[in-house]
Design a protein that fits this description.
The strands form three sheets. Strands 1, 2, 3, 8, 9, 10, 11 and 12 form an eight-stranded antiparallel β-sheet that branches. A two-stranded antiparallel ribbon has the order 4-7. It has a two-stranded antiparallel sheet with strand order 5-6. A hairpin with a 6-residue loop joins strand 1 and strand 2. It has 171 residues and is mainly beta. The chain has three helices and twelve strands.
Length: 171
């Protein structure tokens, strides 16, 4: 059978596609009134994998599905001062997980984790394509914050990585 894909077939299959800049987040910081929405400037949808369990058998390896694993999830945010200082809010959350000076862990799982959502929209931004819910998030790394006298025409940004138990996908 010949492969006969032409431009019209491709356009029909792809349509207008989706855009990576049509998204919304809802990220509340526990024990704080802060909720990230527009401050998140870049992110990727979280990944998960099911690594194989290799079982040797007569010179071959049978690959069986193993246990699902969720990678650390990261995003980039604009630093803000309008509704509070986001970098400080994330550090305060991290401090509640493990104190900087005493190395104590006042972390209370139910109080110090939060469910976050990422919603991806269609081209016009009026219809939800997918919604990812990350369950029981907490920050594992609040990234560095660059300052420079020579920086012009830019907004300050930093990264954050979070751990979470699992995610669910809603359509």
């Amino acid at each position: 059978m010949a492969f006969n894909l032409n431009l019209s077939d491709f356009k029909e299959a792809v349509g207008m596609g989706t855009r990576p800049n049509r998204y919304e987040v809802s990220m509340k910081i526990p024990n704080s009134g802060y909720e990230m929405k527009a401050e998140v400037s870049a992110l990727s949808l979280p990944d998960s994998n099911v690594p194989p369990i290799g079982v040797p058998f007569r010179g071959r390896v049978l690959k069986l599905p193993g246990d699902r694993r969720y990678a650390t999830w990261g995003f980039t945010v604009y630093d803000t001062t309008e509704n509070g200082n986001l970098w400080e809010e994330l550090h305060n959350w991290s401090e509640r997980i493990n104190e900087h000076s005493t190395n104590k862990t006042p972390f209370v799982y139910e109080d110090d984790t939060q469910n976050w959502s990422i919603t991806h929209y269609n081209l016009n931004g009026d219809k939800q394509i997918k919604k990812i819910m990350l369950h029981n998030c907490w920050p594992s790394n609040v990234g560095s914050f660059d300052l420079a006298y020579g920086a012009i025409d830019t907004l300050s940004q930093f990264t954050c990585q979070v751990e979470y138990e699992f995610f669910t996908v809603e359509n």
